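Morning run. Coffee first, then this:
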Amino acid sequence: MNEEPCLDRIPCGILKLKTDEDLTILYSNQAIKELFQTPASLKDMVCESEYPELLAEICSHLTGQTVSFELEFKAKMQKNCVWCSLQLNYIPEEEILYCAISDITCMKKFQEHLRIREEQYRLASQHSGCLVSIYDIPSRTLSPSPEFSRTFPFPYTQPLSPEFLIENGIVHRESVTDLLDFYQNMERGVPEGKCITRLKTGSGDYHWFSTHYSLVCTEDQRPLRGIISYQDITDQYEKELAYQKWMEYMREQKKDCIGYYEYNLKFDLFEEIIGEMTQTMPEYVTNSFSSIMSFIAEHHIFEEDREMFLKFFNKNQLLYHYYRGNRSLRLEHRRLRPDGSVYWGLGLVQIVSDPYTDTIKAFILIKDIDASKREALTLQELSKQDSLTGLLNRATAIHAIRNTLKNSQGHHILIMLDIDRFKQLNDNYGHQFGDKALHRAASRLKSALRRDDIFGRLGGDEFIILLKDVAYSMDLYARLENLCSLIGSALEPEAHISGSLGTAAYPEDGTVFEELYEKADIALYHAKKHGRSQYAVYEPGMSMIKS
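And here it is:
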């Protein structure tokens, strides 16, 4: 062959085979001779166990008159296992096969490595409860496992990609950035990576998944595939988030607290103490819960509240609450200052299971609430009911209205109300009948108000009402008409009484009680001036009528 010197320069093996029984070699180039030591037939080149199958495949192609085809075989080598690719071109007229042989050992090893890795992940997913998908990096497509498809049963109308998962709402919006970084790391060739993402499952709910990938690369270290596993960690992760939020809250709160304690209920051990117990404790006080709480009760708690304090801060009692789902506890109690004076304190306890261990912890915060507690007690003292009507008395009603108006963002209506010609009613029927009229009218009016509305008796036959957080669209006139009607029918059929009403609106007519009171009183005067048994809504200029 004139072309033989040229064929020796080709980096792959070249063969010319006769299509006889042994596939005799008619020509081989230098590459074949170096690799196979001048073989006489194809059988001399192929591993004995592989040859029968290879021969059968070649014959089947020749019988079918296939012109070009490609096969693989394991070469006959003493030391190394070499895989070869055999590309054949059949010339029927000459009964000759022209062949090109390439060493594909590296590719076969890579394929085997990949097969093993995929099998490992398949087995791992079966035993660990993980879901698996494979990310083909050149095509940027995902191949889901059957378990993955059952968990995320979205319609596969197009090849899966990270963008497909995002655009179809499979990925929660708060996890989009993390997920894109996760896939970009694969594409950049980072060998391993993980992230936590929220993904929508078949139930329609979003679950938290711990997502991890391992990268498979080509021989020249180009990223080829990412084997991705997904483990549902919803319960654990939500516990961790709750724990972290609670820890952040406690870090803020303990800046201005009297005392802060982290207590391990399982091991009966204080892990942190801040505040009142940082001074040196006597030798007899151990680090146990009962010992320290007993010391606090004796030296820091008002005598009358000590028993209650110790019953509340009892290890078994805290566990009792925890196992019954009562994880947030509070105790108001009186405490002693260093000078012996008494003040009010609040004990806040949050009992949580540490998500990283199996321990149960109690976080205890002691705060000074003396100012707010004394204000609440003062309000409680003021809130004695009016003895005749059962309504709030004057001081309590005004105090409650002021508190509502303070920094309010709502819309409220203040109503001033009194019984028409009440003195005349007392003179004609007696004071006992007048008391009955007041009681009956108050009862009927109260039945028409909401639980949150404020209703009080200012004294005599005068009443005050605050309709809280009413809509601007409310038919105020119909509401006032109804109140007038309720007063008119309070004593029927024994007698007919009537009442007059005047109103002012917050914040249009004023933002403090005194402004609203004055304008509602002006409107009430206006109603009485025009015949009684009616109502009037304050309007600018009404003050001139009163003058």
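The longest helix spans residues 105-128. Good start to the day.
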